[in-house]
């Protein structure tokens, strides 16, 4: 089959990005997953269970909401895809529902996950509770501090949260620790990766499970605007799972401009940034060849963003390919711009977005969208988890 | 000439392979430790090239890598340090062990040329996939007479072990059980032995060294019952922790294992 943006090669490559650069200890697990994920996901029984859970448990389809006051302000037609209304408060659960069903069919009894902002950790702990599976979530010590409510949510759901104490003690290090756990527990454990990162087949698997976002968008757009295709789809990118889901069914539609918004932290060139598409160069991180932030010796550098979910030194290989091939436009948003967007969305639409999502909203004035253009913003998560940060930066926000 | 092959011809059993992280505990300890290990009876030596995100390593080697990087270790410094090493350590095989990304950034061809010029005999990159090795690296390794070493674990399928054996012309690195480097053996009694015996019964063309979780005389001797020798890493790094005279500590450690 000819590889496309939607379908990587058999070895998991999108252009020059992807692959599976893993130590031998992980090979049997990753290979088992690679050989089985497509056939399991194609089983009618899997699909039935997955679709039912998406509907009755996650609360799908999520609404596509016409944001009239934001539209008036930016003089264009803005629609918000309300992933913040998913059970657990973000799009992350679309993936964990699918992967837990996959894990059950692979005969696994123990689930591990990494988390940055805690949303993926909560989404994983949630489905583990639902299925009665043991759940261990690795979270950077710094992130545990800045996303405390999510730590308690995970514990309440019965998960064990283990602090990642190495490196920058954020998402990168939590991912390292989860991978080390998998190396140590190769038989009974499934690793539910939360983003479109990691060795093949994870980027494709997670993209397929998040693709429901753009599948629904097309139907809802047809109903509301008379066309399945908008002019712009905008999403924030850390590893890139919500963007992959929002872009997926538009990837092969060249008339749709895909806009990926990264975190510029204190400024792209400030030394405190997570703008991987600008600062990154090709290399290997967490099992895939992609763009990543590194020094000239190939040591991975510490990213920074106010948003724990975007604070990652790489991007998924699909996004690296979208950046490299210019299929998607990449925009970087600084902390302060994101905080302002939090206030704007809250006051104009009555929706308090997550810090990650606020980066996508803050890109609105850079799109160049005209009055008749339709802009869909993937509202990936709600802001409850960030309340402490919003209180701390109240002066900047108000 | 191939020092790895020579080492296994000279001594068919109880070979001791010691791993240490370049630039640890101090930047310029690399060569003195290397010499001390060779002089005190290590049969092979692996020099760890520190990486910021060593996925296959446990806490001890992670911490030593962090210190080494803070000390200023990188590939260029390592190759400079190793210049002329074959005058003082003529026979002991030296393998460079590390992760793919720093090697990729250095350039694979550059890396192999410099490694060979510095006197290295083999390369261990745990996150280099077999298929990628064959497609992109094998010719370069061969051109510089560097032997790759691949890992085998209890979960590695027999046909894959055969393929690894075919691609190898040095030794097979048998990972003793599930886990990262430096972990204790937590397997039920007999499980590990059965695995070692299963590999032994395959009559592979390459000799085998057992690594991960080997740390003292007793575990070394036990491993040597099932293979030509064993590899010690984390326990040796621990023995260097906080010492003033790293070469002396290296000699003491090797003597304690071989005593």
Automatic annotation (TrEMBL), chain A:
Pfam families: PALP. It catalyses: (1S,2R)-1-C-(indol-3-yl)glycerol 3-phosphate + L-serine = D-glyceraldehyde 3-phosphate + L-tryptophan + H2O. Residues 59-381 form the Tryptophan synthase beta chain-like PALP domain. Its EC number is 4.2.1.20. It comes from Hymenobacter perfusus. This is Tryptophan synthase beta chain. Tetramer of two alpha and two beta chains. The beta subunit is responsible for the synthesis of L-tryptophan from indole and L-serine. It comes from the Bacteria.
TrEMBL record, chain B:
The active site is at 46 (proton acceptor), 57 (proton acceptor). Its EC number is 4.2.1.20. Signal peptide: none annotated. It is an enzyme of class 4 (lyase). Pfam families: Trp_syntA (PF00290). Keywords: Amino-acid biosynthesis, Aromatic amino acid biosynthesis, Lyase, Tryptophan biosynthesis. GO terms for cellular component: cytosol. One of its GO terms (molecular function) is tryptophan synthase activity. It catalyses: (1S,2R)-1-C-(indol-3-yl)glycerol 3-phosphate + L-serine = D-glyceraldehyde 3-phosphate + L-tryptophan + H2O. Pathway: Amino-acid biosynthesis; L-tryptophan biosynthesis; L-tryptophan from chorismate: step 5/5. PANTHER family: TRYPTOPHAN SYNTHASE ALPHA CHAIN, CHLOROPLASTIC (PTHR43406:SF1), TRYPTOPHAN SYNTHASE, ALPHA CHAIN (PTHR43406). The alpha subunit is responsible for the aldol cleavage of indoleglycerol phosphate to indole and glyceraldehyde 3-phosphate. HAMAP family: Trp_synth_alpha (MF_00131). Belongs to the TrpA family. Tetramer of two alpha and two beta chains. This is Tryptophan synthase alpha chain. It comes from Hymenobacter perfusus. The gene is trpA.
